[in-house]
Amino acid sequence: MITCYLRYEIRLGKLADFEAYAAMWLELLPRFGGIHHGYFLPSEGASDVALAMFSFPSLAAYEQYRKDSAADPDVQKAIAFAKETGCFTRYDRSFFRPLFPKAA
């Protein structure tokens, strides 16, 4: 399994737009075989940082998602929404291999 960790910098005054954008991806990603672990929006502390995590069974499955989603009209709609609203200024993406407790 591979987990993608995203750190977004949200534009001032655009949290509601970012939340709408995030909600789109919560529904989109599972269509392509991923598991979305959610978005984590600002509460206390930094008001311009949001996080997200999602997983795929393998890096190959993630790469297939990237190819398949590129042609999806709903994905294009989400990307256009982010561009139109300017809800975030940048994001960083990192990949991790999760370690879970051993089964009893």
Automatic annotation (TrEMBL):
InterPro entries on file: Dimeric_a/b-barrel, NIPSNAP
Highest taxon of the lineage: Bacteria
Pfam families found in the cross-reference section: NIPSNAP
UniProt domain NIPSNAP: residue ranges: 7-98
Protein name as it appears in the record: NIPSNAP protein
